[in-house]
Every structure is written in C-alpha cells, then in structure tokens.
C-alpha cells in the first residue's frame, strides 16, 4: 500500500504549516484534511505575504465571504485560521487569533452544512448505486429507502433506525416516532410519493412481524448509527461532495437540517405565513420549542440571499440572535 501524500508548502509560512501538519499527522488526521492549509499557502504566495507572522489583515482577507459562498464554508476557513493561530502562539510566533464569537465551531457550535437540492439528488443516486454484497443481499434496498426517509421526513438518524413495522401506518402514510429526543412521541406524515415507496419497500420484507426493524442489517437487527455514518461518508465521496474532515462536516445530521431549510425556503417562495407554519414545522421535527426551529430561518436567510428581505420585513421578529441550536 502506498504511503498517503501530505501537502507541501512554499510560502513564508511554510515551516509553520509543515509543523502544524506534522502535529495533525501524529494525532491521526488524514492527508485530505490538510488540503485547506495548502490552499491557504497558495493564497499567501499570491498576495505576497513575506513574514512568518499571521497578521489580522491577512486573516480577514482570507476569511472574507466569497461571491456565492455559503456561510458554512466561510466558517470552515475561520476555524482553520484559529487552529493555525493557536499553533503559532504555542510556538512563540506572532499571530492574530480570530475572536471566538465570530467562529461558532470554536465556541462549541457546529455550523450545519446545508445540501443543495442538486447535492441531495447526487447523494441519493450514489446510494442507489451501492454495489451488491452477497453477504448482505438487502443492503442496497435498505440504504436506498433509509436515506430517502432521512431527507424526506427530516428524521434524526436514531429515530429512523429504531422504526419497526408496527410504527408505519401504510394506510395513512404516517410514521410513529416513539421515545425520541426528550422522551417524546410524535406522528410524522409522509409525502404521498415517499409513503407509497415505503409501503412497497415494506411489502417486500417477507416474514416480517410487527417488531421487525424497518431498516435491518444482514443479521436482522437495526443498523447502528455509526455504520450508517460510514456509508454516508462513502456516498458523499461518490457523489462528489467534499467532506471537510473531523468536526467540519457534512454530518449525517445535516441531511435533517437540509430538509428543514429547504422546507422554509419553499414556504417563503410560496408566500406562506411563517408565524402560522413555523409551529407546525417545530412539531413535525420533534423540537421541544420554537427556538431550535427558528434557527433554521437564519440558515435559510444566509443561504438564499434573495429571500433575506422577505424574511426581515415580514418575520424579522422570528429570527433568533444567532446563539440558538437546531437539533
């Protein structure tokens, strides 16, 4: 097996970046997770940065929002600059540290990755092309249905994986989510097309009883969330969607985030009154209150600039101050 190739650097900060990557390598990071630093190295060369320092002007130029860029990608660059600044400071070098309040990841907040609809389509295509495995002949149909339910119903992964046949009402196209987050139950109606597909999928599971898992592994037990996350990473790669590395996403949970944001974006485009609709979305997602659901409004405004003015003019009071968490 060939040795993984780590990036090399040529800017004035090359010794620092090399040292940082060596430290990350020792901690078990993968070479792909160093490519953003390689891009920063090329940026330093392009702007003529000539000292082994990390001045504020350089950092702010590198982290400035680019045309058409999502806030998620910008926050990723901010996080990288904080990692670099902390490493340089530990090494006794002069480095400006991006304030924590402007870098949610450093303050304990993950900035969700919101898939475009085209990316969701590409992801599902990759799932549908999962190769057959003689040891697990039903793996393809199970994963294909699972990922459609995760996105089409906005479920948490654990909620979907604990579903049993008795939790699916094929006549009404409704899922019964039991003992979810906060020990709450709820009923989730499905889009008719998704409900029909799920009914046909379940009809092929012969010898199933009410307690049979909807998404069983080859042993007949529910898939583990960690296993599904492993498949998710694989499908992302096959769909051409970059993964930022440990802690940077996209995460499997971001499929749920994307469902909520896409739903809000469509409602805004259709002129739906969000003061009426938002509580319904909150109940559908299983949130304990509106605060988590409101956070999706901020993500929607960030990702779809065309609707910002509409959101602010009609529902500005619904947008939180930026310290909420959506789950």
From TrEMBL:
Coiled coil: none annotated. Keywords: DNA recombination, DNA-binding. GO terms for molecular function: DNA binding. Residues 110-309 form the Tyr recombinase domain. The keyword DNA-binding applies. The keyword DNA-binding applies. It comes from the Bacteria. GO terms for biological process: DNA integration; DNA recombination. Belongs to the 'phage' integrase family. This is Tyrosine-type recombinase/integrase. It comes from Sulfobacillus harzensis. The lineage of its organism: Bacteria, Bacillati, Bacillota, Clostridia, Eubacteriales.
